[in-house]
C-alpha cells in the first residue's frame, strides 16, 4: 500500500463517506492533502473545521486547544464565505447532516440558511472559548480575496 499514491488520487466523494460516518481521524490526512490542491470546496472546509473542533474537545493541552480553535474558526469562516445554495444543490449528498423536511413542499432538502446558522453557532462557541482561554482577537476572513491569499498553518 503506497500512501503517497493514495494521496494523489483523492476523490472528495470517497472521502465524504468517511466524513459522513464521523470517522474524522481516518479522513483527516486525506482531507488535508485534498485541501492543499482544492481550497474552494465548502464541504471539505466545513468538515476540516469539524475535525479541528473534535481535536480541541479530545485534548487537555492548551497549545493544541488554542491551535484547534483557531483552525476550526478559520475553516468555518472559509466555508461561510464560499458556500452558496447553488453549491449545496449541486452536491447535496455532502451536506446530508443538514437535510430536513421542507414544511411547505414536504420534500427533504438542505437550505443554505440552516448551514449558515449552524456555522454561526459553532463560531460563537469557539469565540467564547477563545475569550475564556485569554487568546487574542481572531481575525475573521470576510471576503473571497482574503480566502485566495490565506495561508493555512497546520497545528
Task: Provide key terms for this protein.
disordered N terminus; 65% helix; 3% strand; 155 residues; 8 helices; disordered C terminus; two-stranded antiparallel sheet; mainly alpha
Give a brief description.
Strands 1-2 form a two-stranded antiparallel ribbon. Strand 1 and strand 2 form a beta hairpin.
Overview of the molecule:
With 155 residues, this protein is an all-alpha fold. The chain contains 8 helices and 2 strands, in the order H-H-H-H-H-H-E-E-H-H. Strands 1-2 form a two-stranded antiparallel sheet. A hairpin with a 6-residue loop joins strand 1 (100-101) and strand 2 (108-109). Helix 2 (12-20) packs antiparallel against helix 3 (24-37), helix 4 packs antiparallel against helix 5 (62-82) and helix 5 runs antiparallel to helix 7. The chain is globular and about 45 Å long.
The shape is globular
Strand order of the largest sheet: 1-2
Q: Sheet with the most strands? A: 2 strands, antiparallel
Helix vs. strand class = mainly alpha
In which range does the helix fraction lie?
55-70%
**Can you count the beta strands?**
2
Unreliable runs: 1-6, 146-155
Order of secondary-structure elements: HHHHHHEEHH
CA-CA gap between termini: 27 Å
Average per-residue pLDDT, rounded, comes to 83
> For the CA atoms, what is the radius of gyration?
16 Å
Number of helical elements: 8
Strand portion, in percent? under 5%
